[in-house]
Each structure stands twice: as structure tokens, then as C-alpha cells.
Amino acid sequence: MRELATMKLQVRALERELARYEGKIRPQKPSPRLNGSIPDEILKRMIRLCHPDKHDSSEMATKVTQWLLEQK
Fold first, then answer.
1. In angstroms, rounded to a whole number, what is the distance separating the alpha carbons of residues 11 and 6?
2. Other Cβ atoms closer than 10 A to 7
3. Nearest by Cα to 70 from 23, 25, 46, 22
4. Could you tell me the pTM of the whole model?
């Protein structure tokens, strides 16, 4: 189940990237990276805590989870 949700997040990110490439949306500033300053175990826990599956697939939970996944 968690793997499916992760794949859905990755698909959404790729769809947004394609839309940017096709000029349908303006590019956003890249997210600032934390460059490994979050320990791996804490990062995993943060992802579990804010995952969209736990928050009725809310847009905010999706965005935060995507950002956290980028930190890996």
C-alpha cells in the first residue's frame, strides 16, 4: 500500500515536470535541500507521519511528502 502511494507521488511529480516542459505551467523555484541534515530514520518517520494516505490525500500532505522524498 505504501509503495503504491509513493509511486502515485512520483507520477504526479513527473506529470508536473511534463507540464512545465510543455509550457503549461511556469517553473517553480527548486526546493531548498537539506543536504543530509535530517537523519535517515527521522526522515522516514516524518514521511510516515505526513503521508497523504494518513490525511485523506490532502494536497498539503502530498506536497510535504514529495518534498521529504526529494531529501533522500
1. 9
2. 10
3. 46
4. 0.52
